[in-house]
Amino acid sequence: MESITEGVQKMNMSESQKRNLIQVSNTKKPLFFYVNLAKRYMQQYNDVELSALGMAIATVVTVAEILKNNGFAVEKKIRTLTVDMRDEAEARPIPKAKMEILLGKTERFDELMAAEAEERGEAEE
């Protein structure tokens, strides 16, 4: 019973360390949903980790490039790996490509966010 409790505690610790994680899909949400969500995460946590599997990797790279090219983020770390996925409990594992991109705020991040908020305020009036 102790090993289960320890496992749950370790799982909870790793979840709390990954509060700034966004798992990107290429089918569920539009591209700019992830761009705006990443900006909000960077405001709150100073950096954001974008993660994607398989076909969603192109989406995660695009989100990261939009944030970098517009001056909001800098690349801190890029990690690629292969993970085994199973459709069913007894099925054979299927290897899937996975990419994780860690982005941090630029020095101009707060200035750019303020300018963006000001633009939205003028547009609403």
Describe, in plain words, how this protein is organized in 3D.
- One of its GO terms (molecular function) is RNA binding.
- It holds the Pfam family Alba.
- There is one protein chain.
- The termini are far apart.
- A hairpin with an 8-residue loop joins strand 3 and strand 4.
- Strands 1-2-4-3 form a 4-stranded mixed β-sheet.
- The chain has one domain: Translation Initiation Factor IF3 (2-Layer Sandwich), CATH 3.30.110.
- The chain contains 4 helices and 4 strands.
- With 125 residues, the chain is of the alpha+beta class.
- The chain is 48% helix and 29% strand.
- The protein is elongated and about 55 Å long.
- Helix 2 (31-45) packs across helix 3 (57-69).
- Mean pLDDT is 85; it is low at 1-16.
- The longest helix is centred in the N-terminal third of the chain and has 16 residues, at 2-17.
Please name the CATH architecture. 2-Layer Sandwich
How many runs of DSSP E, i.e. beta strands?
4
Distance between the termini: 61 Å
CATH topology heading: Translation Initiation Factor IF3
Mean pLDDT across residues: 85
Number of domains: 1
Instruction: Please give the largest β-sheet.
Output: 4 strands, mixed
Under CATH, the homologous superfamily reads Alba-like domain
- Share of residues in strands: 25-35%
